[in-house]
Amino acid sequence: MAEVDHKPLEEEPAAPGNAAAVTSTAAAGVDVEMGHSDDTSPIPPPEEDLKDPEAPDDGTKTSSKEAKRWILGRALLGEFLATFLFLYIAMAVPWNMNRAGVNNPATEAIAVSFIAVAVIYSFADISGAHFNPAVTFATIVTGKTTWRKGLCYMAAQLLGSVWASFWFIVTFPDGVKNMKTLALTPNAGIGLGHQLAMEFTLTFFLIYVIFSVAFDTVDSKHVEVKQIGLDGEKGAKNVAARNLTIYTTSGDSKAGFAPLSIGFTLGMLSLVGGTVSGGAYNPARVFGAAMCSGIWTGQWVYWIGDFLGAAAGGWFQLLFQRLKKYAGTK
């Protein structure tokens, strides 16, 4: 499965980590999913500020808190199920192809891409479809969600990863033995520095793409696009054109294609670092397999490398957002 989200723990989660949902109000300049508005949108005061502080509670606040608890519970259940589905398919498909005698790394990349797109489209409006603690960590350190809600998300993701590994054992013959093979551990023949750098790079790439397509929205009403190429009337080059681009994206178009962009990115990353670090770029992938196989060797490589890469990717994309706003004032 962007936005600066300072909402409390119980509020409905922002679409994230691995996806974004575009609402009709987003086109009007207010990004409800991301929890923020553009610079020109009026921000209405909270309803609580309009009420008499000494007035007795009419039950509205109680019902609102109850609704928020249900929303958070639905989001956590969504993260659990999204992580389970993604990791189970990501492990089961390549292993099943291997049992069939097909040893082709491309099958894993295709499986990861397809299941990621399906999960993001299915859960973006429920939990934001992070299904990766590194994605959630990036939203925390960039201020897009709170630590409390982020830790709850991570707990749900880790439970989902354990259940995915357990279900792999249930559904495949000799599942326990196979799970020991699927458990990711640092490659003994490669330096830990190379493996940390690889995990950092893969996660940085993933988080930057996620933040760019799912969180970085643009108010398309204020975007001016000038045609580049032949002038329609004079048949000559339009030398006065200032925007030197042949393709532009608005916030709506980027968010609408976010599941495909993120899914393809995940598939591509599956082909990059497997021979170096195992190519986790998702601590949940490592945690669930370790829990069910009992192999915990080198866990810190994936947690530290992935979290550092996630933070760097989120901050770097946030820098571009800030620079864009600054440039808009000139």
Characterise the protein shown here.
The chain has 330 residues and is mostly helical. It has one domain: Glycerol uptake facilitator protein (Up-down Bundle), CATH 1.20.1080. 57% of the residues lie in helices and 1% in strands. Strands 1-2 form a two-stranded antiparallel ribbon. α7 packs antiparallel against α9 and α7 packs parallel to α11 (299-327). The longest helix is centred in the first third of the chain and has 40 residues, at 60-99. It is globular. It starts with 23 loop residues before the first helix and ends with a helix. Residues 2-15, 17-43, 46-50 and 217-251 have low confidence and may be disordered.
The largest sheet is: 2 strands, antiparallel
Tell me the CATH superfamily: Glycerol uptake facilitator protein
- Give the tally of structural domains: 1
Count of runs of 4 or more consecutive helical residues:
11
Beta-strand percentage range: under 5%
What fold name goes in the CATH topology slot? Glycerol uptake facilitator protein
**Strand order of the biggest β-sheet:** 1-2
* CATH C-level class: Mainly Alpha
- What is the succession of H and E elements? HEEHHHHHHHHHH
Shape: globular
Spatial separation of the terminal alpha carbons:
34 Å
